[in-house]
Amino acid sequence: METTDVLVVGAGPAGLTAAIVLAQSGHDVVIVDAQAEGANTSRAAVVHSRTLELLEPYGVTPALVGRGVHTPRFTVRDRDRLLVGVPFDGLPTPYPYTLMISQADTEAYLLARLTELGVKVLRPARVTTVAQDGSGVTATLGDGRAFRASYLVGADGMHSGVREQAGIGFGGGTYDESFTLADVRLHGGVPREEVILYFSPDGLVVVAPLPGGTYRIVATVGEAPQHPDVAFVQRLLDTRGPKAVPAVVDEVIWGSRFRVHHRIADTYRRGRILLVGDAAHVHSPAGGQGMNLGIEDAVKAGEALSKVLRGGSPDLLDAYAAARRPVAEKVVALASRLTSLATMSAARRPLRNLVLGLVGRLPAVRRRLAWQLSGLDRRG
Predict the structure, then answer these.
(1) Where are the beta strands (DSSP E) in 79-169?
(2) CB 3.0 to 4.6 Å from 33: which of 20, 52, 123, 201, for a disulfide?
(3) Is 358 exposed, middle or buried (0-12, 13-18, 19+ CB in 10 A)?
(4) Is residue 114 scored above 70 in pLDDT?
(5) Domains in the chain, ordered, with CATH?
(6) Of 77, 74, 94, whose CA–CA distance to 86 is shortest?
(7) Cα separation of 87 and 170, whole Å?
(8) What is the pLDDT of residues 161-183, one digit of tens each?
(9) Is the pTM of this model over 0.85?
(10) What are the angstrom distances between the C-alpha of 335 and each of 284, 290, 293?
(11) Within 10 A of 175 (CB to CB), how many other CB atoms are there?
């Protein structure tokens, strides 16, 4: 049996971040992941200001900032008409923008930093059983290997085996709507300095720039195809996107479909087990909060664990759990409100757009949204 200070289960953005925080703080950490390889698709594509601030002490932020597209505005539009403009360029942060970058790149930079710290991800390595007692946690892998750790961090996603083994509930539900996602090359009337939510009468489509001249498209549809093609994405933009200068899809690089869940773990701590990321909360991608909230969890959990491993009170872990769940509740509520607006019935969409156009003129509303979306309202 191998021993370590902390075993991290799951090598997505949250798990990698937790391992970096612990390793940089001088602790022995082992990180395992069930997949043979890391992500090679973009999936989450937004890194907000607060996340960049949190990652700065851990040597990851410069690489992310150098690679991603800096978008200083988040806008809601009805075709060509601006309804709400949310400016980030006036925020009191070194990173006054939304950073658009593929999750594959984010994970690659996190992994590179972890490797610099002398930690390698063990993969494929699926944890099958987890048992804890007063002095530690024992995790057994599918191949029979076992690890004994003082603490375990569950970062193994929405279907977390760690959460299940710990007996932690995961209450919530699933939205009825189906979503389509595609990374495309296009030309036409879509700016590269904005993340745009088109709230058209025909439905929602999100258009956001990514590095390399590509764009992320997300849309609500009745039944999304498993692999959206050029013709499908083009129809979405023709009926929901810009009209004066239409956007023309040249190529679909990658695409998929998904349904949106909204769930929060009953607790983020059970004894010597902590949850972070999607193992602790899942919600709508509206506002691009999911990965950011998971990385924030991981930094807070890693820093709390470091203090406990250095002799601090285990009550610090209770404080982590007590603080993070209300944060998730707040973020899930914001994402749910945005999703409800985006998926409103066709009959109510014209009135919704009229009201948004009026409310969007209020500077206080725009400032509040900028603080919430950037995550800066969660400082401290």
Answers:
(1) 81-87, 98-100, 121-122, 127-132, 137-141, 146-154
(2) 123
(3) exposed
(4) yes
(5) 2-71+95-172+262-346 (3.50.50.60)
(6) 74
(7) 35
(8) 999 999 999 988 777 777 899 99
(9) yes
(10) 6, 9, 12
(11) 17
